[in-house]
Amino acid sequence: MNNILSNIWYLFQWLTFRRKIQFFLIVFFSVFVSLMEMVAIGSIVPFISTLLDSKSVFGNNFIFYLERTFQITEKNNLIMVLGTIFVVFSLITGICRSILIYVISYFSNVVLAEIGKAIYSQKLNEPFIEFISKSSDEIISLISAKLLQIYGVICAILLLLTSLILFISIISILLFIDLKLTLISIFVFGFLYVIIILSSRNTLLRNSKIISQNQTLMVKSLQEGVGSIRDIILDGNQKIHVNSFSKLIFERGFKVAINDFIAQSPRFILETMGITLISIYLFLFSDTESGVIGLFPILSALALGAQRIMPLMNIIYTNYTNAIANSHQLNEAILVLKDKKKYYESKIDKKFLFNNKISLDDISFRYRDNMSNVLENIDFQITKGSKIGILGKTGVGKSTLLDIIMGLLIPTSGKIYIDEKLITPENITFWRKKVTHVPQDIFLINGSILENIAFGIKNTEIDKDKAEECAKKSEIFNFIQSLPNKLNETVGERGIKLSGGQKQRIGIARALYRGCELIVLDEATNALDTRTEKKIIDSISKFENVTIIMVAHRIDTLKICDKVYKVENNKITETII
Fold first, then answer.
1. Domain tally for the chain?
2. pLDDT band at 25; cut points 50, 70, 90
3. pTM for the complete prediction?
4. Is 286 helix (H, G, I), strand (E, B) or coil?
5. How far is the CA of 4 from the CAs of 153, 186, 196, 329, 332, in angstroms?
């Protein structure tokens, strides 16, 4: 429970000043609604007393005050005034409570959107080495499915707070009307709710953890199924994947059902007990001097109060259980929000120039402290406008070296200079803006070829002529022209409609479109036939004032390079091909 409260407190502190003001306005509005509710319930006693011509002392005093203040002489006029007070305040209460529900829902959704934006921004801006060390299933699950549960927690907290304010106000007026019955009701219902809460809390917490874990595993299962559809069809093991997903979703559904049962079931039992208490009250006091008719005004107020307070008690309990049931998801979000790291906005700095060379000075790198170095004491330079080839067996550190040069990985030791300017965390984003990367496995969005070539650019800002020119240089233009919709042809999810070679050529066109000063080709032509690769390489060899680093398995691909380096035994040495 302490962990939940600390998370809620952290979330409140995390809110912007504007959201905190809105939160307090919601609280103040709840107090206003509760005051209206008190007047509405309190006004029914004199109203019913007058209708029945009851001799209730409370009713007579209040009626006498109205008669003297408003100079009322006739009973019908008094009934009209009292009835109007009751109806008006009841209407105001009903309208205000409806507005309160909308305001709470709106506020919860806005806060949820800000949490989602903050988590996504933090994930995309965290160091590359940390990002690749985490599962994408966890990130996707947290930002998509689990945010819905977090919304439930935020909404539950607000409803819990506002309902408590209303509850206290209604109880206050009921205590004034009938102290004994109200105290008995509070004790009976309060005791039952405490018993239910204490007995179900651990179950809710356990279920919350299982639901959260299963949501992550469900996303993982779906990604694996969609990503390996060819292998699944060829192997004929659809049933295995379906059964794996089915087990997760059914277990999650069962736990959600238990939580829903715990949240909803007490309502029906306690409503029945409320009716029973009123019946007992009638039986015990029916033989008093005034009889049931004399009790009717008070019973009317108690009945109206019960009609208001029973749902409130259920709302308080239900939202408490919802907050507990989704506490694990909230805790995951809070842990991400707490894990603040300073990052620098990616932008262009005209003062950060690359005119001469890239220098790696005694670079060593390892992925974790308990691992050995992947690269060790690397020293070499890349001249601006040169074409550099990288050779090496799989797993020797070629991609790691490229990631260091591109500024994605920070060296464990050593320094990188651009034109004698040291790369630091403060200026590394400026360097990244000058680099583009074409990997072996090109990521394509489920959009048009034009959108994929100009990836990351708003549709309204895409230069179609430039995209066509880049398509020509990457030897994909003729294929595009053969398509019905030309550049507007969609490629399917992850480029499923294209061959591996076509995807790589679009990736190269994307790199050319960006117009960066350093192009890194990480086995970017390995899916191309020799003839197409030669055309692209010939085109690349004509680029002026652009530095190119190429990693390739084919020796012939690197013949255009000015220098070729070989990576082996954690070192890099210049070689001749």
1. 2
2. very high
3. 0.68
4. coil
5. 10, 26, 19, 11, 12
